[in-house]
């Protein structure tokens, strides 16, 4: 190799954006042990990449047994919600450079749901609460012969809560949910809100009665953890307060 070529390689190496980052991951495999453990991995990565990219490097190049959920990798499916440096986030939306890569990046499963393996939790209780609030349009009478029209103002009334991607980041950040898995949780209430305030829907009263249960909306302690955790920027606490107000006044 010529001197000029060597100089070029060295220059490109010196300009490399890659840094060494330590990922400290909480591992759990019920087939091996009943106890979880922390395991460190050192990864060469561009700080402009995402935590999800780091997890991919670990799984594909260092340890194929690492288990986590992900699908679209673009903040739409919500499947890769996890606790990163102590906060609920989507791994696909969290940049390495935004969480101080000079220190170990801790990654663990979201709280309040049973851990199945590594970063994968049992989502069934979460989805059952979602199903219980009837998250679909309910109307009476015959099938309509034309589209159910709605004004822009009526649509705007519940626009914020249509953004939910069911990632469980809000629900699994709630201290009430951590201590009582029977609580419906913020995500279920947000999805009830989306239909309670829909002018085309006719089951608002039913949903309000469901949320008037002892494990319903009144369990909220307004800590704002859910709002802070939402990757879509939904004003979760505000939506919960609006449902409470609707229960008191029975006005949608």
From TrEMBL:
Keyword Cell membrane: no
EC annotation from Swiss-Prot or TrEMBL: 1.3.5.1
Matching InterPro entries: 2Fe-2S_ferredoxin-like_sf, 2Fe-2S_ferredoxin-type, 4Fe4S_Fe-S-bd, 4Fe4S_Fe_S_CS, Beta-grasp_dom_sf, Helical_ferredxn, SDH/FRD_Iron-Sulfur, Succ_DH/fum_Rdtase_Fe-S
Pfam families per UniProt: Fer2_3, Fer4_8
Catalysed reactions, semicolon-separated: a menaquinone + succinate = a menaquinol + fumarate
Domain 2Fe-2S ferredoxin-type as annotated: residue spans: 19-113
Gene3D superfamilies in UniProt: 3.10.20.30, Alpha-helical ferredoxin
Top-level EC class as recorded in UniProt: oxidoreductase
GO molecular function: 2 iron, 2 sulfur cluster binding; 3 iron, 4 sulfur cluster binding; 4 iron, 4 sulfur cluster binding; electron transfer activity; metal ion binding; succinate dehydrogenase (quinone) activity
UniProt remark on cofactor binding: Binds 1 [4Fe-4S] cluster.
Cofactor(s) named in the record: [4Fe-4S] cluster; [3Fe-4S] cluster; [2Fe-2S] cluster
Keywords, ordered alphabetically: 2Fe-2S, 3Fe-4S, 4Fe-4S, Iron, Iron-sulfur, Metal-binding, Oxidoreductase, Tricarboxylic acid cycle
Listed pathway(s): Carbohydrate metabolism; tricarboxylic acid cycle
Gene Ontology BP annotations: respiratory electron transport chain; tricarboxylic acid cycle
Database matches in PANTHER family: SUCCINATE DEHYDROGENASE [UBIQUINONE] IRON-SULFUR SUBUNIT, MITOCHONDRIAL (PTHR11921:SF29), SUCCINATE DEHYDROGENASE IRON-SULFUR PROTEIN (PTHR11921)
Family: Belongs to the succinate dehydrogenase/fumarate reductase iron-sulfur protein family.
Protein name: Fumarate reductase iron-sulfur subunit
Origin species: Streptosporangium nondiastaticum
Upper lineage: Bacteria, Bacillati, Actinomycetota, Actinomycetes, Streptosporangiales
